[in-house]
Amino acid sequence: MIRLLAATATAVALSTTLALAQKAMPGDRVYDLHSERQGSCQPMTWHIVATAGGVLSGTIAWDDMKVVAGVAGTIRPLMNVERYGKPLAGNSQDRAFQLIATEDHGNRIANITGTLWHNGWLTATIQGPGMACRNIKVQWLQPQGNRVNEYVTNG
After folding, report:
1. Distances from the Cα of 51 to the Cα of 40, 56, 106, angstroms
2. In 3D, which of 11, 55, 4 has the Cα closest to residue 29?
3. pLDDT, tens digit (0-9, with 9 covering 90-100), for 111-139
4. Is 35 exposed, middle or buried (0-12, 13-18, 19+ CB in 10 A)?
5. What whole-number distance in Å separates Cα of residue 93 and Cα of residue 108?
6. Nearest-CA neighbor of 101 among 91, 111, 114?
7. What is the model's pTM?
């Protein structure tokens, strides 16, 4: 009974997340990215909405869009400090993120962690059943003219 309740709560939360992923509010940033095949990791299409408050939601698809997973998580500043609070080297524009991905028509759940670097690249690690991708590199900032693969929504 407890498992059924937990599964139901998870399904409701994930379907709500997927519904919210499709609606961007004014000021949100929408990222449409593509990662190439890297090692044993398949090419992936990323559609992520980032709110000003650091909430992430969206979808990641692979296997020629045959497999789609809803994602939800957070992004936060990457903090580099020593034991007594002295700042270490690093760029305050770098951000760490964490997502939970749930396959739309399956029961697989994966954890995605990574860093969005100020140099225009992100690195991510995906860990879940049947998928272990480490250090996936995705370019989110285009060098020519500093174009970003993002859209800022208007009111």
Report:
1. 32, 7, 27
2. 55
3. 999 998 888 888 999 999 888 899 999 88
4. buried
5. 33
6. 111
7. 0.69
Amino acid (1-letter code) at residue 138: V
By CB atoms closer than 10 A (0-12, 13-18, 19+), residue 14 is buried
What are the residues whose beta carbons fall under 8 Å from the beta carbon of 5, sequence distance 6 or more? none
Contact of 109 with 133, CB cutoff 8 Å: no
Cα atoms found within 13 Å of the Cα of residue 108, Cβ hemisphere only: 15
pLDDT number for residue 52: 82
Encoding tokens for residue 97? 């993120």
* Torsion angle of the four alpha carbons 104, 51, 45, 37, in this order, in degrees rounded to the nearest 10: -110
